[in-house]
Structure formats: C-alpha cells, structure tokens
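Quick check before the chapter quiz. The format below is the same one you will see on the exam, so make sure you can read both the input and the output lines.
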Amino acid sequence: MRTIPVLCFVGASNSGKTTLIEKVIRVLTIQGYQVATVKHTHKTFAIDTEGKDSWRHRAAGVKTVILSSSAQFAVLSGTKEELTIEDILRRFVDDIDIMIVEGFKRDQYPKIEVHRGGVSKELLCLNDPSVIALASDEAARLRISGIPVPDIPILDINDAEGISNLIEERFLKRRANL
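Here is the expected output.
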C-alpha cells in the first residue's frame, strides 16, 4: 500500500483557508493531480435531507447509509469518536496523489498556515514546527517585521500558483520519482 501525502491548511476562522484551498485544488487538478480533501469541523453537520430515503433509513436506525450512482457515492455513518486522518485515509480514500486537509491543527502532519491581518490573532508557526509555510495577506510586512518567524517560506495568500508549486515540489514531484 502506497503512502498518500497529507497536507493541512490551518489558521483562524475566517482567515481564508477554504478560499485558498479551492484555488490550490484548481491549480493541482489542472496539472493532472488527483486530490482528496477533508474538512474538520467542531460542529455537528447534516448532509442528509429530512424525508429523503437515506434520511429515512438513518431515522429507522441503520448505522451506515451509502448513496451510490454511476457518477459518485457518499457514506453517511455514525461514529463513537472522531475519526483521525489515518482512519479516513484507510477507510475512504484511494487513487489520489495528495490529501488536503482543512483543520486538524493539533495533528503533526505538515501544515500551511493561513494568516490574515485583522483576523488572525497569533502566528501558529511560532510554536508548531510542523508548519512548513505561511500564506498571508501581510507577507511583505511579516518578512520585515522583526517577528521571529521560523525559516519557512512566507507566501502571498492570493498566490495559489506559487503555493501549488511549493506543494508540488515538496510532496508530488518526489512521488513521481518513486
């Protein structure tokens, strides 16, 4: 079984993680890479619609409902505890080149920190050695600020192509040579 690289995008709520991830996914998929994503949330969520067959199955008491068509499938399953990234990879993901994760900031996977001035109160990279790059709308200011940012790339938050190039170089080109 091959190892799938995992990269987390972390940062404060409303810092722009989802928008940046969307842009990066577009660049990577245009380049031919197969990407999977996981969005971590602390809230409960629902993707099932009340009254639909799958909702009725769950209301009747099943543990897992699988929706399947010729174009896609979805698994709705109860869980006793939060799944880890490893659980998700093992159970649900195959045939991809990279897993991009939004959140899971306490995990030790490599991370790109998304920082937005006026939103982000602190720099996570100051205390987390797994942060490999910083994407910020204040990239120029941070480079010259005197804040002891670790020796990591500081990229413009709007430079999805540059961030994708970093991801490709660090995680994907190396895989192509395996």
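If your answer matched, good. Residues 160-176 form the longest helix (17 residues).
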